[in-house]
Design a protein that fits this description.
Helix content: over 70%
Strand order of the largest sheet: 1-2
CATH class of the largest domain: Mainly Alpha
Structural class: mainly alpha
Radius of gyration: 27 Å
Largest sheet: 2 strands, antiparallel
Strand content: under 5%
Shape: globular
Order of helices and strands: HEEHHHHHHHHHHHH
CATH topology of the largest domain: MetI-like fold
Distance between the termini: 80 Å
């Protein structure tokens, strides 16, 4: 009589097989996201880097020129002027956004009547695209058919209609006002989440100890919002460095090319002058700047909240 015995895999082997299956299942789940990143980021980035090493006109063949495009950037005073203006705009608009968003965040963070209505009203402009907001403000700032200048004239506040887009200072501050109106609500929500994460016990203990509002804000609120502030700051700075829509739609780079941003100059070189290789090189330089900003963000976020 023959006895047949069934053999089973040892427990360790079964665990390894189960772990391997789970890993494959995890890879399958993340595969669509990885494919999207490859198709829409990694491959275009590689193509841009490759194009930056070529003389690549819109029509006709392209030729390899090495680093000549990057050498030309060093002599491109228009690009450096555009980058200088972009830096100036970034500093001003970031300060303005935080100056508006922080008080709004403090206001809507505390329970009060109609809080949800205030939050919705303040955040609503953020859902409008920059192109649509720019078209709206282009009409509002129109000297003849707009709102601001004709309304001020009809109310007797000014003697004659004033073109807000004719000179640099009124045009620049009009753009600042539009961007603050558009972005402050989004920044407000980010800051509000940071405020809500602060334990109320700390604020109450500080009040019992006799700390005033400013002392509590400096010693408790700001340190505990380090990461939230860093996130909002980097998002604001990165968005400002990439500013294009508002300057293209409202000002067209004017008056007298004084509001050309870095992205606007890249657009001109790529799709107006049709120098795609040079535009790609400019894009790579701007990418390096944004990577540097990202590294600053990582440095700010590496410290625990509340630790100097």
């Amino acid at each position: 009589m023959t006895t047949i015995t069934a053999t089973t895999a040892p427990p360790r082997a079964r665990k390894l097989i189960g772990a391997g299956r789970r890993q494959w299942i995890g890879l399958i789940y993340v595969a669509p996201a990885v494919a999207l990143v490859m198709v829409f980021f990694v491959i275009p980035l590689g193509m841009t880097a490759w194009m930056s090493l070529h003389n690549w006109p819109l029509m006709g063949g392209h030729s390899f020129i090495g680093l000549d495009n990057y050498v030309a950037i060093l002599r491109d005073t228009r690009f450096w002027n555009a980058l200088k203006f972009t830096g100036y705009y970034t500093v001003i608009v970031t300060i303005a956004i935080f100056a508006v968003a922080f008080p709004l965040a403090i206001f809507i963070e505390r329970p009060r009547p109609l809080t949800n209505l205030y939050r919705t009203a303040f955040f609503m402009p953020a859902v409008v695209g920059f192109a649509s907001a720019s078209l709206l403000w282009s009409w509002l700032l129109n000297v003849d058919a707009g709102l601001f200048s004709p309304a001020a004239y009809n109310l007797g506040l000014i003697d004659r209609k004033f073109n807000l887009l004719a000179t640099f200072q009124p045009a620049f501050w009009s753009i600042i006002a539009m961007v603050v109106w558009k972005v402050a609500g989004f920044t407000m929500i980010i800051l509000m989440t940071g405020l809500q994460s602060i334990p109320q016990d700390l604020q109450e203990a500080a009040v019992i100890d006799g700390a005033g509002p400013f002392a509590r804000f400096r010693a408790i609120t700001l340190p505990l919002m380090r990461r939230t502030l860093a996130l909002a700051l980097i998002l604001s700075v990165a968005g400002s460095v990439l500013a294009f829509d508002q300057f293209y739609i409202i000002l067209r780079g004017g008056p007298r090319n004084q509001t050309l941003t870095a992205v606007y100059w890249i657009f001109n070189q790529s799709f107006v002058s049709f120098k795609l290789g040079y535009g790609a090189a400019l894009s790579m330089v701007l990418l390096v700047i944004l990577v540097a900003l990202s590294l600053v963000q990582l440095w700010l976020l590496r410290k625990p909240e509340g630790v100097d």
